[in-house]
Design a protein that fits this description.
Shape: elongated
Distance between the termini: 51 Å
Number of helices: 8
Oligomer: single chain
Strand content: under 5%
């Protein structure tokens, strides 16, 4: 049993949101965002779409740098959650040990432990998606903080 403290999903997301805010001034000045055309990935990302629609402090469209860096932060959070799950002890090894190569073999060749490991990962993916969709609808002050941080730095320079 691992006694190491594991940050909650909300803690991980809050750290990512803080990082989003802290990097706002730098990100807003990056040349890749100069023309403010939203890339296809940001335009289609369901979490970005939900977060923008729920942000009552704007006309439901963030600048591209804000969308893109937000999306990157969420990708990192999802990756951390997946990695943490994969490294959890399971059946004398880790979940990752049973997933390794499973996708390259037909499902009917999987043993019961591999089937269960795949189901655990699938279940967590669904839960993470539902949790993120809920959190996108409850971001409240974060987008405003990010815009304010970017504007504050711009005024100082």
């Amino acid at each position: 049993m691992n006694a190491e403290p594991y940050p909650s999903w909300d803690e991980k997301l809050n750290r990512a949101l803080q990082s989003w805010r802290d990097s706002a001034a730098h990100q807003a000045r990056r040349p890749m965002f100069a023309d403010d055309r939203t890339c296809e990935d940001c335009r289609r990302d369901p979490y970005v779409i939900i977060a923008q629609l729920e942000d009552d402090s704007t006309a439901h469209r963030w600048p591209h740098w804000m969308q893109h860096t937000f999306r990157e932060q969420l990708i990192d959070v999802r990756g951390e959650l997946s990695e943490a799950l994969a490294l959890r002890p399971y059946a004398g090894a880790t979940i990752a040990a049973f997933l390794d190569g499973a996708g390259l073999r037909p499902c009917h060749t999987w043993d019961q432990t591999t089937r269960q490991a795949v189901q655990i990962v699938t279940d967590q993916s669904v839960l993470v998606d539902l949790w993120l969709r809920y959190r996108m609808a409850t971001l409240a002050p974060w987008p405003k903080r990010v815009r304010r941080a970017a504007l504050h730095e711009r005024r100082r320079s």
